[in-house]
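Archive entry. Fields below.
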Amino acid sequence: MPYKNKNYSCYCAARNKAWEVLIHCKITSLPLNLNLIAEYYKIKIIPYSKAKNYKNFNQEIKDGDGFSTILNSQKIIYFNDKNRTIQRIRFTIAHELGHCLLEHDLIKTKYRNSETGLPEDSIEEIQANVFARDI
Ligand SMILES: [Zn+2]
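PREDICTED_STRUCTURE:
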């Protein structure tokens, strides 16, 4: 079935990207240093509490776990550091790194909010979750 094959190839692309990143960043031990990956690929990570443009975030962004965007060709991951556990923050950053490194379109920003995650998650959301899990 071609539909299933397409899903499988999208899964493989996300899984392989996670392995490729570990190899390129020479990561061989746990716990994984997400900052090291971000630095290697020149992606900025900014907590909401330090975001200069926080007042411009809409309510959906403020309520979400985080998002990635691109400003003047600089990829940036913003994450919600208010009322979130470190485990949840780490998964959010790993998920957003997935969007950035799988070359997803960062212009049409989707805000990660696992509380309101819809069952019809797009293939890109599934790929970002596969990447986050496998990394
Ligand atoms: Zn996402």
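CURATOR_NOTE: Strands lie at 44-47, 66-71, 74-79.
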